[in-house]
Prior knowledge:
By secondary structure, the chain is mainly beta. The chain has one helix at 66-72, and strands at residues 12-15, 19-25, 28-34, 39-42, 52-57, 60-65, 73-75.
Amino acid sequence: MTTLKDSSTEQYYRLHVTTLAVYWREGKGQHLHIPAGAILSKSSVPEACSPFVKVLWNFQSLQIFAEDFENRTQPVAS
């Protein structure tokens, strides 16, 4: 089993366009913008019924639209 802390399997992506993200605080969705150039770690594969991908950025677990992730990121060579 792999975990997010297993650096040999972590995948990193560079964001090319400032992108809206959502995080949850006290049961309410909050939004913020992840700046272009940020390095994200993809923490899950999108579920079939969910339009979101979970990512880690700045030690925060966030969600961005799967379509934005696909169109606005590129894998970072390790």
